[in-house]
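hi! just following up on the protien thing from before. the input was this:
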Amino acid sequence: MRADGVRAGYRGTDVVHDASVRLTAGRVTALIGPNGSGKSTLLRTMAALHPATAGRIDLGGGTAVRDLAPKELARRLTLLSQARPTPGGVTVREVVEYGRHPYRPRWGPGDTEGPEVVRRVMEMTGVTDLAPRPVDSLSGGQLQRVWLASCLAQDTPVLLLDEPTTFLDLRYQVELLDIVRDLADAHGIAVGLVLHDLDQAAAVADDIVLLVGGRIAATGTPAEVMTASLLTAAYGIDVDVHRDPDSGLVHARPRARHHGRLRQPRTRNTPERNTP
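and the predicted 3d structure came back as:
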């Protein structure tokens, strides 16, 4: 998937400026950057859910996303967005089965592979035991995994994820990122995802795209993009970066102020002290 010179915004004001991104089969690309940098807008624009005001987005072979019929586009890419409505009166299995809609003919039987795909993705995302439960009875983390399963049921070569670890506890954050890595490594999926956690981005991604003020400030491997100078400039706070000698992974941490520790807030019961 290629996005070239993309511009997008709201009410006549661009928030993404001339952005170019490549998503490659078998690789994970993470979009990082401070709040308001345009990460989610760019991802939604690549998924044709938000209109681009300039540029071009292609899905292999020079096929423009804007030229594809909705059903054909849904067979080529899927997006797990930050917020989805919680439908009432339907079960977990039925929501996951929504992902098979692009493969169902208008008339007559079809989608013979559907049941096996649904079974597999529910097992992969850990929601098999939730299958008969109403989705409006689930916790936020459970619901996030159900929607991920629905996206995976679409069985597309391109998968876009907008802050997929939101609402998930630590265990399921790790498991979800393992799934993302497996989709790229074992199934050749081109994955693009927005992440706020820099260590998670460094751990899961082959390529990093750093956005600042709606513009791409850097693109490359985690080691190339996640440098102290680039991250400090992007986030407006001193950031220390080091590489783990055992795993080789890059880790980023904001530099603590006030001689290595954060200043404790003073309460009404805390006496003031004059310090030199």
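Confidence is low (pLDDT under 50) at residues 262-276.
The longest strand covers residues 13-22.
cheers
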